[in-house]
């Protein structure tokens, strides 16, 4: 007896096809599934899918399959969110760099003459190649993004990036009720005088050295960037006002501890800092940076080389 | 507008009737899946011009806010795309109802948006299609936008159609903090197909 073309295709196609009844028993298991699972059709047909593959996320998958029976609806899973359901080997064992075959699934309702869903047909497409390309592309994108997020002179983050990070932090607070973050604005004192006295090249070196002195003292989640001119900004996630104030004090000390050596010149540099926390009633990035800016103005006004916080409290003198 | 695209008052009533019935069924089916009662609004039906689609969506959502949306294409007798627009809370509150057992990370959160979107779209559109004797198949849903201002969900410059039929349904869950909008968009040629399906539906009444 010769196979029908449809049977031949289902059996031989280079994609997984299987079929389940209402009790999740296997009704059909094609060659691809047999080959990759090392379980042939005779072994699996009639048996419960979850007994055959105890690793499957049963609760979630049962919901999914049930929704196809109840809604007479298609359902899907994508490797991008859930890399695989079955631990199958893939065809790039040497060059792949990933563990198991990446899998896209489609669940389709198969109806009988009365329109009732009798079985769910599941197709599995091997998405390993796309996954590998996407991983490569993401790595390239990250590099590209990295380079456009940086301030060309100092190598710290630029204003554009800082602004998006503040926005992200605000979103995170809204979404996860995360602890508030704080913002520190830092302005070098009498920077114009440094430029005028020692020249712009020296001024540039001072900016680079300030960045080098600030960075080692930061925690991993902190984000430090140049906000423009001689102004820097620091975002401290999950940090209250007091924590941010002591971080600002350490930075102030690190900047002013020793003169910056620039060729033959020894340039003494100090900074004024302003600190604000993102707390109610603040709702935007502009409000919290504005508050930090007001505190920074207080530091300048009270004699520079100091840290002030918003709302105004007693100022700390260096 | 081309008169061919306008629904006659009878067709409009029939469509309203069909969508009402379908949403009733969808609510019952969703309750079976989610094991909670889902409230569906009376569907709102509009023909919208591509240039004003952003305003239409904004009006249906009600307030300018940041939203996350999933899109899914359907084809067959009727062709178009369905969008499920979630508010800022997305659907994390539904995780356990959809069979997620652990704390969910970013990827599971996205998968959940897609899962919930797929179920809502399927429940509503299959019901409409069945009543109209139309055959539909669906492609996999994808994330359309995350945390985007609702007026910017669709860029009118990228659209290749002039007029589309827009059907909107609003879902809420009584026991959970969850709300979302399902918007089904069908371009011109599908409106014509829908009109004849509605005529056939009325003849069979």
UniProtKB/TrEMBL annotation, chain A:
Among PROSITE patterns, the record links this protein to:
GGDEF, PAS
Q: Spell out the reaction equation it catalyses.
A: 2 GTP = 3',3'-c-di-GMP + 2 diphosphate
| Enzyme Commission (EC) number | 2.7.7.65
One of its Pfam families is PAS_4
PAS domain segment(s): 2-53
Question: Which part of the chain is the GGDEF domain?
Answer: 179-312
Top-rank taxon, per record: Bacteria
Name of this chain's protein = diguanylate cyclase
Automatic annotation (TrEMBL), chain B:
Q: Does the keyword Cell membrane apply?
A: no
The UniProt keywords, alphabetically, are: Chemotaxis
Q: Which SUPFAM superfamilies match?
A: CheC-like
Gene3D superfamilies noted in UniProt: CheC-like (3.40.1550.10)
High-level lineage: Bacteria, Pseudomonadati, Pseudomonadota, Betaproteobacteria, Neisseriales
Keyword Secreted present in the record's keywords: the answer is no
Which InterPro entries does this entry report, sorted A to Z?
CheC (IPR007597), CheC-like_sf (IPR028976), FliN/MopA/SpaO (IPR051469)
One matching Pfam family:
CheC
Q: Can you name this protein?
A: CheC-like protein domain-containing protein
**Ranges of residues in domain CheC-like protein:** 11-47
Query: Record's CDD domains?
Result: CheC_ClassII
Q: Its domain of life? A: Bacteria
The species is Chitiniphilus shinanonensis
């Amino acid at each position: 007896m010769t196979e029908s073309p449809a049977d031949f295709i289902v059996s031989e196609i280079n994609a997984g096809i299987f079929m389940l009844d209402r009790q999740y028993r296997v009704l059909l298991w094609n060659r691809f599934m047999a080959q990759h699972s090392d379980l042939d059709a005779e072994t699996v047909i009639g048996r419960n899918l979850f007994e055959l593959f105890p690793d499957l996320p049963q609760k979630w998958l049962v919901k999914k399959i049930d929704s196809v029976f109840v809604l007479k609806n298609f359902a899907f899973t994508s490797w991008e969110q859930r890399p695989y359901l079955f631990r199958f080997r893939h065809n790039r064992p040497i060059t792949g760099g990933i563990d198991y075959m990446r899998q896209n699934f489609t669940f389709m309702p198969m109806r009988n003459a009365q329109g009732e869903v009798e079985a769910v047909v599941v197709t599995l497409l091997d998405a390993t190649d796309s996954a590998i390309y996407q991983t490569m592309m993401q790595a390239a994108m990250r590099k590209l993004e990295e380079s456009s997020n940086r301030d060309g002179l100092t190598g710290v983050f630029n204003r554009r990036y800082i602004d998006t990070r503040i926005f992200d932090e605000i979103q995170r607070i809204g979404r996860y009720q995360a602890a508030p973050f704080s913002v520190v604005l830092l302005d070098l004192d009498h920077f114009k005088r440094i430029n005028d006295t020692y020249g712009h090249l020296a001024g540039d070196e001072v900016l680079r050295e300030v960045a080098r002195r600030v960075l080692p003292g930061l925690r991993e989640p902190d984000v430090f960037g140049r906000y423009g001119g001689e102004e820097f900004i620091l975002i401290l996630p999950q940090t209250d006002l007091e924590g941010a104030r002591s971080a600002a004090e350490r930075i102030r000390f690190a900047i002013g501890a020793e003169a910056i050596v620039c060729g033959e010149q020894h340039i003494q540099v100090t900074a004024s800092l302003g600190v604000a926390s993102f707390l109610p009633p603040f709702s935007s990035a502009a409000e919290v940076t504005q508050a930090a800016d007001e505190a920074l103005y207080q530091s300048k006004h009270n004699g520079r080389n100091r840290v002030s916080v918003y709302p105004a409290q007693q100022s700390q003198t260096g | 507008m081309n008169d061919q695209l306008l629904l006659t008052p009878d067709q409009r009533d029939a469509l309203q009737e069909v969508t009402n019935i379908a949403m009733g069924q969808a609510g019952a089916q969703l309750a079976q899946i989610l094991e909670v009662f889902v409230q569906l609004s009376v569907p709102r039906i509009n023909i919208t011009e591509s240039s004003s689609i952003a305003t239409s969506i904004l009006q249906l959502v009600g307030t300018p806010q940041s939203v996350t949306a999933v899109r899914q294409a359907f084809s067959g007798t009727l062709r178009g795309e369905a969008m499920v627009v979630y508010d800022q809370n997305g659907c994390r509150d539904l995780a356990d109802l959809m069979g997620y057992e652990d704390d969910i990370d970013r990827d599971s959160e996205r998968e959940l948006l897609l899962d919930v979107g797929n179920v809502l779209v399927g429940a509503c559109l299959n019901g409409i299609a069945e009543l109209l004797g139309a055959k539909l198949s669906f492609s996999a849903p994808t994330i359309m936008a995350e945390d985007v201002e609702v007026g910017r969900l669709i860029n009118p410059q990228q659209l290749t159609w002039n007029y589309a039929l827009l059907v909107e349904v609003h879902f809420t869950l009584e026991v959970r903090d969850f709300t979302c909008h399902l918007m089904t968009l069908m371009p011109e040629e599908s409106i014509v197909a829908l009109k004849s399906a509605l005529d056939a539906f009325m003849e069979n009444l």
